[in-house]
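Priority: medium. Attachment 1 of 2:
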């Protein structure tokens, strides 16, 4: 839903940490789910654990 609402402003990806352990270690992923918000190639925010749509949208809106 959030990707559709923000159109071309954001890209959302998903990573299987079991199949990509090196990437998970590189970004310090220690819990599932973890959402990394990357802006201009750098981590701008991180959400660990479940978050509802309003929280996610608020975080993204503040960074756009």
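Attachment 2 of 2:
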């Amino acid at each position: 839903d959030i990707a559709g609402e923000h159109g071309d402003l954001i890209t959302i990806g998903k990573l299987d940490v079991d199949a990509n352990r090196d990437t998970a270690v590189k970004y310090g992923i220690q819990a599932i789910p973890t959402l990394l918000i990357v802006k201009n190639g750098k981590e701008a925010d991180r959400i660990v654990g479940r978050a509802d749509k309003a929280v996610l949208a608020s975080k993204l809106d503040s960074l756009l």
